[in-house]
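Ex. 9. Protein: N(4)-(Beta-N-acetylglucosaminyl)-L-asparaginase.
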Amino acid sequence: MVLRPHSRASAVLSFLAFLTASTCVSASRSPGLPFVINTWGGAFTAATDAAYLALIADRNTSALDAVEIGCATCEKNQCDTTVGYGGSPDESCETTLDAMVMDGTSMKTGAVAGLRRIKDAIGVARAVLEHTRHSLLVGDLATNFAIENGFKEQDLTTEASKEKCEAWKRANCQSNYRLNVAPDPSTSCGPYTPLPGIDQQTLARSVMEDKGAVSHDTISMVVIHESGIMAAGTSTNGASHKVPGRVGDGPIVGSGSYVDGDVGGCGATGDGDIMMRFLPCYQAIENLRQGMSPQDAAEDVVARMLRKYPNMSSGIVVANTKGEHGGAGSGWTFTYSFRGGDMEATEVVSVPPLPRRLEERRRNTNDIPDEI
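Predicted structure tokens for N(4)-(Beta-N-acetylglucosaminyl)-L-asparaginase:
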């Protein structure tokens, strides 16, 4: 099959039109309970193992406990330098942390965003869940809350993160997240001053040309206890060289992760500033509620985002209450890890970008449109 020449955006949109008319692959079979699934393979499998082994070692370990243990493992290990201290410095060379936990029975959540000088972000998020009626605390006041609850104040900067930031400054602060400012952010560092607002045509063009975030890896985890109780959580240090004060999708309920113990759970990673506009994990669980398989639910969510942002990077992992699971992504080859039942080791699933996956599906079906 030969594709006619189109822009990348047009090709993506055409592929997505085919998605709605094609039969999606079914969910991967559940290995049994307890069950742990999270975004990414590689270093992130340590989190999968930690959560799973905690559930196996002691039946009194709750789903929330396992989520906290798993995410905390990545925070301590600085998984891919995108989780925990010493990674993703902002424009001022400071590392701040975002985290969220959610209970699938009560639907209660606890989250922190822009957390400063506290390493255990997922632990503070759980303290918000268990010791307040709130859902989200931010910035220095979240740090004060953490200290009140016994967490230790520490410097999150490392020599590596400091050098990364200084190298970025030496390279004229490239790349960055500034738009419509002077001096030109594509060639210069700040300080910046705003230019007059952009019109709708320019805004629409900037969306189609958006290359996505510079860095965007997050651990998002879903756990099913052997009793069937579910929980989910997310931890990240955000995007490298972000504007100070920026909060991504990680601590946003329904975006970074989401769980409904009657239906299933979802974890997400990718261009957080874009993804939070779609609440992809909430949508994925609603897709499950409407009868989609986890694989269908994940692909539908990615397709919705790609229709508006064809260049974005994303990764979605979805599991139903049985531990059947699926994943989808765009802009990169996404991976996710899972372990459940009597599995002796974590398995990693590689997920091609959604348009490529549809291309492969077209080759294996007789129901192929004449044109793309």
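Check your answer against this statement. Confidence is low (pLDDT under 50) at residues 1-26, 367-372.
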